[in-house]
């Protein structure tokens, strides 16, 4: 997968519109018609999945009104009768489907009086997606079903192998209020889940992955795709978004921004009228920017040096990411963080006047293990959480000469278990136990072996999907059977006490 540059847009809520534009573009790529000139031109790009998104922010309703055109080329060896998209923003509609970690965070913030709204109002009623129309590019209507966080579109005729189709999806997304992965408050709006994303297709079962977002653990499992986005947002907001800015115009208090992001898994934006940018150049023409809120702490030179060093360390130990710009964006609440294709969202508890926190190091490492390399989070969450947390500890061990932390977890369930088997503790088990397991393995095979495995793993699976079995095979190819067997034993048969 290619990680693209990050674009900044000065605009209030119009940035959200841009987000919607991305959604539209995505949908356009996913649904389309065969034989159209526009479709043929769109599919000249590198990805068989291309989204053209146009989005406009509505400040009165805190929503994005958008259209996504999906251009999709069938690279499977049999015809497809339908296309399926995820609408994970629907998970915020009712408490039973809301992500448990996010719901608990919002409940705590509300109980502390930090949200400015009644606990019973979280999230705002009506949050989620309304699909208004699905058509071919020529305007011909298509049958569709929007249910259970997915959108199923019936094609007029089966799409043959190597055939292309272009669909136009019109929709509106109302953002929930508070500290969600996609959210708004009085000074902030943004996140992910605001564009339709083509589900992963299993060619052996001839079935799409319609599984809704699992409340106990994030269900990220997305193809890398190309996005072409037009955002219309309030001109007063500073907007940070995945992708490279191609054009930016302001007229009558509205900013219109054209962005392009290739080879990304999730399109994200974060916007606030209160953001201030601090920029630091990196070697080889790259750069990093930190966006802090007006009442927040500005990053010190020591912190900027540490961030640059961590990026250089992982780039050398794992491999270079294609993107040339890193964006670190302050969230409006403590405990609110994410790591998505070139953008790192960090909570207000993060200290920017000294060395990087372990959480920040983990979020940086996720750019490789959670974005560049794709996984099915529901079944292989260890590869994201465990690898990223271990990478944070490995950096501190190698760069800062810190000893390996003592094992602290008491839950010894096997890390190959899917998230549903681990319940609400899946994140902790994958992350903490996974890092401890990898540290034990590293002490057996030697620290020099870690970059060898990382580089082989990254080179094999960047832009693709990895599995735990695939990672084990990489370890065997790089280090031999004994290293593979030791790691397999730790993953499948952890100690009972």
From TrEMBL:
SUPFAM superfamilies tied to this protein: Metalloproteases ('zincins'), catalytic domain
Superkingdom per UniProt: Bacteria
InterPro entries (alphabetical): Peptidase_M4/M1_CTD_sf (IPR027268)
Protein's name according to its UniProt entry: M1 family metallopeptidase
Originating organism: Paenibacillus thiaminolyticus
Lineage: Bacteria, Bacillati, Bacillota, Bacilli, Bacillales
